[in-house]
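Human: Respectfully, please carefully check these tokens:
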Amino acid sequence: MNCDEAKMLLHALLDNELDAGHAREAEAHIASCPACAAELASQREMQRVLADTNLRYTAPTSLRIRIEASLPQPQRQQPSRRSVLRGFAMGSAVSALAASGVVAVVLRQDDQQRILSEVVSAHLRSLQAGHLIDVVSTDQHTVKPWFNGKLDVAPPVIDLTAQGFTLVGGRLDYIDARAIGAVVYKRRQHVVNLFVAQTSSTEHRPPKTQTMQGFNCRRWGERGLNFWAVSDIGADELAEFVDKFEAAMKANVEG
């Protein structure tokens, strides 16, 4: 185990969230590495200080009263004949759109946004201590077999260290009420989560980048799989990651 791998496990080691094997590996490395031992001691001291500090503050009732009094009070109005007719016209328009299939497209887009929101939420959860990785390894031949038997289809795991994106492990996550694989990479100190889910569609969907809650997310579809790459790195760097991942995956299939 090297320093980078050990530092990613320090929080989990402090919170007793590591399995026995990883705990032994981390402790053995720390025992022989002054830098990691100092980092562990620093985090342990911070944990102690925070535990001894009363950080809870309850706002006074008078503040709530002042805030509620400053808010505009809603005014109830009887619906006018024009608003009733407008609502009827809108309902008729929706019915017409439904007949033409347009509403189905809108619903699919809403569903995609909902799933994207779940993906970003999963990325945020993973950044909490002890939630990032289930299997810690920079070896793709260790990470990929770990998914076997846990998912219907194991996600492709590709080592992109030479291209500037270090593979650090993988985990199971849950999106749209089902288990999917998450392959974890690092770009400098930034985490890149690559979520992979099986889909019934085999068509290629070109990559598309969106921003949500301050994170960039690039999603695409390929060979019966849906991919979402999420990180706080720039959109251009995330696109570079996806391009290199796709190129390597294509080379592996052709090879």
